[in-house]
Structure formats: structure tokens, C-alpha cells
Backbone:
């Protein structure tokens, strides 16, 4: 009895906690894309059938329990099987399964057939422990932990992984699909409304699986073109001797082996693909001690909404804390385990960490820049 009460209390608290988050950024009910909408409707359809079955079956059990409960010591009539009943309760579930199967199969067809690549936006999404890499092969743009999409556009996401199994999921737009190393899966998605959405890894992939997130920023067509332009625009030149410039030198000396920061340059895209591939190869050779590992591209990091793959708001205080000790925010990052600045003999001073943070936050497309490169 005690355990029943305890379970009841936990369940009630859980319901209460869910009611407390009106935003519910990872709820699959407030959908903003046709794929998520289709999945939600399929779920609700099945759910209401299950509710009807539940009420009939539970109602029957409760009714019969009371109607035929023990009233005297007479033995009830003993029966062995009832052919009519057996046939009825075999046929009814079979019919229910067929009713559910039809829209399910139709939905599978609808989401599995990819639109024409020529007329769609193709994005390559790669899972890493524990962050997401996004590449736009046609546009030659690369970013990390932030997927930028134009509204009302067919998008084909080509999904893979560079280490273990992950899963790509944007609850309000579409999902989920496994990210498998050495294999490409394709997911069709489309976003209806401009806005900020949450993405989440949905396959247990190691110690901070739950903290492997990303943000999806859906733009109007015009804003999306602006974003593409921004990604090809260099940041402003730093004043020599400024904290930002000192931070740049420290970053180049200590961090740029793994983090690219200048993919706005012409030709940088192919270079980044090679670099990231080589980093992966290095890491595979010696997973414990390699000095180089694949790491998020930090081009225009100052524009990012979050840091640590969707974990903290991207601001100066959080960034300083992150560089000081990423383990305090996200246990087990490769940065903490592999970067030389965390070795006892090579630690940075607080001032140096602050300079790096200032430098990273200065990485934004320059408004004065005339050096925009156009493909
Ligand atoms: Cu990546 Cu869970």
C-alpha cells in the first residue's frame, strides 16, 4: 500500500512539474512544422483509440468485480472457454491494429520519401560527443550547435556521426533519426514559423547525453539570406594591444588546433572538412591522449545564442566559467580531457581566460567590412 501511495505522489508531482513549464520548448504538442504535425496527429489518433479501449476494459473489470464478488460460499459455475468470446476478442484487436496501421504506414511513406535535392536545402548534421556540427554544402557554410533554416522550405538533413550513436531530434519541427558513424541517414524537415526552437540528442551516447542539445533558428527567407551573407563576412579588425587582440593570440596558440574560427574566408569550407576529418582520425588513433580532437567550429561565435551545445546562455560570465573549467558545467567534455591548457604545467591565468572570452565574443560579422566574399 505504501509503495502505491508513494508512486501516486511521485506521479502527481511529475504532472505538477510539467504544468509549471508553460514554454515547454521540447514538447511535441506545440508543433511548428508539417512533419511534427503529422507525428503529433498520429500519436493523438492512437492515443484516443487507446483511451476508449482502456475505459471499456477497465470499466468491464470494475463492473464485473463488483457484480460477481463473493456473496456466499457457493462455488460459481465452472466454464472452460467460450468460442464466441474468444473469436470476438481476437477479431476486435485485429481490427483496431488495422485501423492504426493505415495512417501509420501512410505517414511513414510521406516522411521517408525525400523531396528533390535540387529544389531543397541540404544540410549535413554530424553528431559528436557531445555537440552537433552543421554543414551547408551548397552554400559552403559550417556552424556548430545552431541550425539556421529558412521558413517554408523543404530541408533534407543528411545525418551521420563521428563517434558513437546519437539521435537528431527537433521536437517541435521533426524527429527523431539516429546518427550512425560511417552511415548516412536522411530526414525530411520543414519549419513553418520563424523563431527559436530546441534540438536534443535522443539516443544515449555517454555521460553528458542529456546535455547534448542544439538550437534551431528559423528565419524569414530574407533574414536567412542575410545570415548566409554574415557567415561569409569577416569580423572587425582588432585594435592591437587590446584585450581582444591578446585573447586572439592566446586562442590561436592554444585552441585553434581543434577549433576553426575563420570559416568566413573563401575556400575555408573544404579546408574545414579536411581539418575536422583529420581531427577525427587523430582522436581515433588515441582516444585517451590525442592532443587534437574534433571540436565545434567557432566562426562568429559572438553571435551564438548558447555555449556548451545549448547548455548555457552565451554571455561573458558563462564563457569565462566555461573556459576556466568546462567540467563544472558539462562533465567529461573532450576539451577538458584533451586541451593542453588544462594540464598542470600549462594553465592560463584568470586574466588570460578573460582575454580569450572577450576575443570569442568579439567574433561577429563586421558591419563596416567591405571584404564580404561572394561565391
Ligand atoms: Cu548524443 Cu545522446
Residues:
Amino acid at each position: 500500500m505504501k509503495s502505491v501511495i508513494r508512486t501516486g505522489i511521485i506521479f502527481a508531482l511529475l504532472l505538477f512539474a510539467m504544468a509549471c513549464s508553460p514554454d515547454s520548448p521540447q514538447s511535441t504538442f506545440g508543433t511548428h512544422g508539417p512533419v511534427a504535425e503529422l507525428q503529433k496527429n498520429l500519436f493523438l489518433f492512437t492515443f484516443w483509440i487507446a483511451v476508449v479501449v482502456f475505459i471499456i476494459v477497465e470499466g468491464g473489470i470494475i463492473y464485473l468485480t463488483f457484480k460477481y464478488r463473493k456473496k456466499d460460499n457457493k462455488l460459481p459455475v465452472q466454464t472452460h472457454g467460450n468460442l464466441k468470446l474468444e473469436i470476438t476478442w481476437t477479431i476486435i484487436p485485429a481490427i483496431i491494429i488495422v485501423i492504426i496501421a493505415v495512417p501509420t504506414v501512410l505517414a511513414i511513406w510521406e516522411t521517408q520519401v525525400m523531396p528533390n535535392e535540387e529544389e531543397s536545402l541540404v544540410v549535413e548534421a554530424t553528431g559528436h560527443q557531445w555537440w552537433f556540427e552543421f554543414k551547408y554544402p551548397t552554400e559552403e557554410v559550417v556552424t556548430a550547435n545552431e541550425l539556421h533554416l529558412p521558413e517554408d522550405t523543404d530541408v533534407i538533413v543528411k545525418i551521420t556521426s563521428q563517434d558513437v550513436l546519437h539521435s537528431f531530434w527537433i521536437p517541435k519541427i521533426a524527429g527523431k533519426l539516429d546518427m550512425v558513424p560511417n552511415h548516412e541517414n536522411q530526414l525530411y524537415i520543414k519549419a513553418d514559423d520563424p523563431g527559436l526552437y530546441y534540438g536534443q540528442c535522443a539516443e544515449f551516447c555517454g555521460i553528458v547525453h542529456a546535455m547534448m542539445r542544439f538550437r534551431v533558428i528559423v528565419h524569414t527567407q530574407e533574414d536567412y539570406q542575410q545570415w548566409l551573407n554574415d557567415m561569409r563576412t569577416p569580423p572587425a579588425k582588432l585594435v592591437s594591444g587590446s584585450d581582444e587582440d591578446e585573447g586572439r593570440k592566446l586562442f590561436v596558440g592554444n585552441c585553434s588546433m581543434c577549433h576553426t574560427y575563420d570559416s568566413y574566408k573563401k575556400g575555408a569550407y573544404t579546408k574545414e572538412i579536411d581539418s575536422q576529418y583529420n581531427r577525427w582520425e587523430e582522436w581515433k588513433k588515441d582516444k585517451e591522449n590525442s592532443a587534437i580532437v574534433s571540436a565545434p567550429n567557432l566562426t562568429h561565435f559572438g553571435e551564438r545564442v548558447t555555449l556548451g551545445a545549448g547548455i548555457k546562455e552565451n554571455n561573458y560570465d558563462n564563457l569565462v566559467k566555461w573556459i576556466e573549467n568546462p567540467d563544472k558545467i558539462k562533465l567529461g567534455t573532450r576539451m577538458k580531457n584533451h586541451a593542453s591548457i588544462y594540464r598542470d604545467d600549462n594553465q592560463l591565468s584568470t586574466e588570460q581566460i578573460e582575454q580569450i572570452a572577450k576575443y570569442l565574443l568579439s567574433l561577429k560579422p563586421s558591419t563596416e567590412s567591405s571584404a564580404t566574399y561572394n561565391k
